[in-house]
Every structure is written in structure tokens, then in C-alpha cells.
Write a structure and sequence with these properties.
Helix content: 25-40%
CATH class of the domain at 2-94 and 164-242: Alpha Beta
Radius of gyration: 18 Å
CATH architecture of the domain at 2-94 and 164-242: 3-Layer(aba) Sandwich
Oligomer: single chain
Order of helices and strands: EEEHEEHEHHHHEHEHEEHH
Number of helices: 10
Length: 247
């Protein structure tokens, strides 16, 4: 994916301004920065989730496989099928574990039970959840632990086989053990798809990403490979944030 000259306004307020960044295929791009700096706004711009917010105006360009995702002839539903999203807090539907994962497939018109069963199992395996739930697929997804619910939401996103997965602080509400499972999962999924993850946890960014971008006050201050950002940042603002002088 590529964003160039991207601006997002909430009414008169400029949330992010003139952001340009490449999202490299089959890598993890981490976005760091203090609260309210524009990380999540930018993330939601990558699959047009901001379209659902009143009075939002998006200008600039975002491309997926060199094709623009904004424009009157582009179906945002199809964009979101190719660019999945996992939110900060797990949001399983009040349905069975099976139906939670099958939901997107059914919306896309797939109702053949054998195909659904195969794709649900594959998604749950990719989300490292299959062994924990394979004997209780008919039970409610709401009965799972917090960490399992988040992995269920990841499985739901993976079931429609997206090319890119956006993750907005997916482990912020989880305990350390569940967080470690999510981080392991991110590292494994990188072999198959592109991931952009927003995180407040700089150690997490350092552990799971290959590239890191630092946002501050609606600007992308800099982006580089993760080792460079954390050891030899070019910008003073980045260094001050990483060393704890603010944020």
C-alpha cells in the first residue's frame, strides 16, 4: 500500500496532514506516538473506515496494489475485504464461535457448509485458536477469555483472506500472557500478509515490526526500519519521544 499527501479532517479540525508513507508487502509496519497524534486516524484511512464517521473529509491518495481506494467508483466494502481490521477492544458478535468467524464469508455470499467449515478452521488455525476451541465451535464467542476473544476477532478478519491486516492496539487491554500470544501471532502472520499495527508500547513495536513510523501532532515525523528508529532516529522529536522526554 502507499499513501501520498493524505489529509483527514473532522469538520474544521485537521487530524492528519500531508502524510506520505509506503507499506511494504509482507512486513509489519508499527505506528507509534503519543495519544491523539493521528495514528489511528491514519490507520482507518487505509481501509476507508473513516467513511463511517460524520463530517470526515479525506483528501490525498491511498493506493492498494497501485490502484486508488478512494473515489466514487470504488466500493468501500470491497476495500475492507482486502484490507481487514482488528480493533483495540475485542468485539465478538453475540453468536457462536463458528458463526463469528464465518460472518464475513456469509456476507460475501458463501453459504456452503463444507466450504465454510474449511475456511473457519483455517482462519482459527492462523489465529492460533483452533486447538483451544475446536470442540466448542457452537458455544458463544462471548464466553471466551479476553485474549481468546481478540484472537477470535483476528480469525474473523483472516477468514475473508485479506491482503493487508490493520491492527489498532490489539493487545492494549490484555494481560502479558495474552499479549505475548498476539505478538507471536503477528510475527507468524507476516509470512502471509502485510500488517500495520498501532501501538503505544514501544517495546512491542521493536519486537514485532520491521519498519516503524512516528506520528506527532497529526504529522508523520519519520519512518524507517525499526532498528534505525529506535537507535539512530533522524529527527529530534522522535528521539525525545523514544527516550521518554515526552509522551
Amino acid at each position: 500500500m502507499r499513501a501520498s499527501g493524505l489529509n483527514v479532517r473532522y469538520g474544521e479540525k485537521l487530524a492528519i496532514g500531508n502524510v506520505s508513507i509506503d507499506v511494504h508487502a509482507k512486513q509489519v509496519l508499527a505506528l507509534i506516538g503519543p495519544s491523539g497524534c493521528g495514528k489511528s486516524t491514519f490507520l482507518r484511512s487505509l481501509n476507508r473506515m473513516n467513511d463511517t464517521v460524520p463530517r470526515v473529509v479525506v483528501t490525498g491518495h491511498v493506493e492498494l496494489d497501485a490502484e486508488p481506494i478512494y473515489g466514487p467508483t470504488v466500493d468501500p466494502v470491497l476495500v475492507r475485504r482486502r484490507v481487514g481490521m482488528v480493533f483495540q477492544r475485542s468485539n465478538p458478535f453475540p453468536k457462536s464461535i463458528f458463526e463469528n468467524v464465518a460472518y464475513g464469508l456469509r456476507i460475501a455470499g458463501q453459504n456452503e457448509r463444507s466450504v465454510l467449515a474449511e475456511k473457519v478452521e483455517r482462519a482459527l488455525r492462523h489465529a492460533a485458536l483452533w486447538d483451544e476451541v475446536k470442540d466448542r465451535l457452537d458455544e458463544s464467542g462471548l464466553g471466551l477469555s479476553g485474549g481468546q476473544q481478540q484472537r477470535l476477532c483476528i480469525a474473523r478478519a483472516l477468514a475473508v483472506e485479506p491482503e493487508v491486516l490493520l491492527m489498532d492496539e490489539p493487545a492494549s487491554a490484555l494481560d502479558p500472557i495474552a499479549t505475548a500470544k498476539i505478538e507471536d501471532l503477528v510475527s507468524e502472520l507476516r509470512d502471509e500478509l502485510t500488517i500495520v499495527i498501532v501501538t503505544h508500547n514501544m517495546q512491542q513495536a521493536a519486537r514485532v515490526s520491521q519498519r516503524t513510523g512516528f506520528f506527532y501532532m497529526g504529522r508523520l515525523v519519520e519512518v524507517a526500519d525499526t532498528t534505525t528508529i529506535f537507535t539512530r532516529p533522524k529527527e529530534r522529536e522522535t528521539e525525545d519521544y523514544i527516550t521518554g522526554r515526552f509522551g
